[in-house]
Amino acid sequence: MKIVISGLGIIGGSYAKAIKKYTEHTVIGINRSKEPIELALECGAIDREGTAEDLRDADMLILGTYPKAAVEFIEKNGEYINKDCIVTDTCGIKSEICGNMVNLSDKFGFTFVGTHPMAGKEVNGFSASDADLFQGASCIIVPCKAKRKSVEAVTNFVTSIGFTQTPVVTPKVHDRMIAFTSQLPHALACAYVLSPVCRNHKGFSAGSYRDVSRVAKINAELWTELFLENKAPLLSELDTLIDNLSRIRNSIANEDGQSLYRQLKAGRTVKEELNE
C-alpha cells in the first residue's frame, strides 16, 4: 500500500518505523514542522515527504495528530483524498472525532475507521518513536459506520505491525472505558504529585510512588483536549474515585477500623478476581 501519515510525533513516528520494519508498504510523511520530517528521512522511517497531492492515490491515511488537528487536516485536504482511501486516526477519544469524521467522509467520499493504539511513553516527539512500540499491544477499533471489509483491512494492517489485541467497540463504549483505564489515572497522577510533600520524596519512596506518579509526566496540551472532549465519562469516573477516597478518608478520621478494613479488603478482592 501507499500509506500517508500526517503527524510524526511519537505515535505517528512509531507507525512509520513499524511499517518500514515489518511490511513492504511505502510511507509518505506530512508534518507541520520540518525537523520530524528530516529525522524520519534520515533514519528511513518514511520514503519521502508528502503533500496533499499524495492523497489522490493513497491507500491509507493515518492521522497521528491531536483530535482537533486531525479534523482540521481533513477539512483542509479532504478534496484530495481518493474514494478508495481508508482514513484512520490514533486519537484517545472517539465520540466527537467519529461524528466529525463520518460527516467529512460523507462529504468527501472516503472511508473512516477509528483506531486507538494503546501504547505510548512519558516522552513525546519523533525522537521518542519506536518501531517496536506496538508489539503485543492493543489497538481499539471503532468502525464509525465503516463497512466490514474496511474494518477488516484496518485490523489486518495494525496486526501486521505488532498489535495482538483488536477489540471492536462503539465510540460510547470506547470513551467510557478509556475514561477509567487511561484518563482517570493521568488525572490521579497529576493530583498526587501536586502535594507539597512530593518534592521531598527521595529517600522515602519506592515502587508505590513510582507506579502512581509515573504518568504525571504528561503532555498538558494534548490531555487538556482529551479530558474536555470526554467530559461526561471522565467526570463520572472522577466522582466515583472522589467518593471512594472520601469513604476511606472518613473511616480514618472516625477511627472506624472495621469500615476501613472492609474497603481495603474490597479493593484487594477486585484485583485478585482479575488475576492481576
Can you walk me through this structure?
With 276 residues, this protein is α/β, with parallel strands linked by helices. 51% of the residues lie in helices and 12% in strands. The protein has helices at 10-22, 34-43, 67-77, 95-108, 148-160, 171-193, 207-213, 220-229, 231-253, 257-273, and strands at 2-6, 26-30, 48-49, 60-63, 86-89, 111-118, 138-142. The chain has a 7-stranded mixed β-sheet with strand order 3-2-1-4-5-6-7, sandwiched between helices. α3 packs parallel to α4, α6 (171-193) packs across α9 and α9 crosses α10 (257-273). It is elongated. The model has no long low-confidence stretch (mean pLDDT 96).
Could you list some keywords that capture this structure?
single chain; 276 residues; alpha/beta; seven-stranded mixed sheet; 7 strands
Indicate the overall shape.
elongated
Helix-strand sequence: EHEHEEHEHEEHHHHHH
Write down the oligomeric state: single chain
Whole-number average pLDDT?
A: 96
Report the biggest beta sheet as strand number plus sense, adding barrel if it closes: 7 strands, mixed
Helix content: 40-55%
Please indicate the percent range of residues in DSSP E strands (runs of 2 or more).
5-15%
Please count the helical segments. 10
Uncertain runs are none
The class by helix and strand makeup works out as alpha/beta
Please give the alpha-carbon distance between the first and last residues: 39 Å
**Which value, in Å, is the CA radius of gyration?**
21 Å
How many β-strand runs? Answer: 7
Largest sheet, order of strands side by side?
3-2-1-4-5-6-7
